[in-house]
Amino acid sequence: MKLTVFQFEGTAEELDASQTLRELTQPHHGTTTVVQQAAQPGQDAPGVPSRIPGVAGEGQEAVRTLLRRSPAPELFVRFLAAATGWDNVAVHGIKRKGAQPGDPLDYSRYLRLRRQGSQLGGFAYVYAESSTINLRLNYGHAQLDELGITTARTLTTGHREYRVSVDLTDETSLANALQLAELAYNAT
């Protein structure tokens, strides 16, 4: 079953007088053809490239699957491309609880961005499905305000070192996430 929803705006008189609206709302009998937009070369869905920057081959399909459900896949991919361009940055899946030596990493929930050689772990945990960036910064609202960051929020739960989060929604949030990620990267 497929349900299609339309929203029309206008006065009651305008809506009653609309021939187009009347045609759209009349029941149709027969077959319906659905036309899907073809993916562009190098992409398997709008905003989802065939190769995700920095992600190991074993995690590519899992991350692409998450990005297909993401509200801002292109912003997430641009964040990864920028961050993995910094010196010694690698993207890692997560080791599952109870994993045996040699088991593959898990890429199905979130990714860890880590500065190779750092003893402090990841500087960011990134969630492809929601296009959310959690950063290794223990900053409060005042520190974020001083930096001119307008799109980040502070977290009150979870690990005390990871207290800043940005949801990628537009160019400003991407710029804020990259600015904060660079601070976290430099601190690790």
Summarize the structure.
The chain is built from six helices and eight strands, in the order ααββααββββαββα.
Q: What's the alpha carbon Rg, rounded to whole Å?
A: 22 Å
Distance between the termini: 51 Å
Largest sheet: spatial strand order: 3-4-5-6-8-7
Q: What class do helices, strands and sheet pairing give?
A: alpha+beta
What is the tally of beta strands?
Answer: 8
Topology order in helix (H) and strand (E) letters: HHEEHHEEEEHEEH
Percent of residues in helices: 25-40%
Average pLDDT taken over every residue: 84
Label the overall shape.
globular
Largest sheet: 6 strands, antiparallel
Q: Which strand-content bin applies to the residues?
A: 15-25%
Which spans have pLDDT < 50 for at least 5 consecutive residues? 28-43
Number of alpha- plus pi-helical segments: 6
What does this structure look like?
- This protein is an alpha+beta fold and 188 residues long.
- It contains six helices and eight strands, in the order ααββααββββαββα.
- The strands form two sheets. It has a six-stranded antiparallel β-sheet, with helices on one face. A two-stranded antiparallel ribbon has the order 1-2.
- α4 runs parallel beside α6.
- It is globular, with a radius of gyration of 22 Å.
- About 9% of the residues have low confidence.
Keywords:
single chain, 188 residues, alpha+beta, six-stranded antiparallel sheet, two-stranded antiparallel sheet
Ordered list of secondary-structure elements with their pairings:
Layout: H1 12-17, H2 19-25, E1 43-45, E2 48-49, H3 60-68, H4 73-83, E3 89-92, E4 111-115, E5 122-127, E6 132-135, H5 141-146, E7 152-154, E8 164-167, H6 171-187
Antiparallel strand pairs: 1-2, 3-4, 4-5, 5-6, 6-8, 7-8
Helix pairs in contact: 4-6
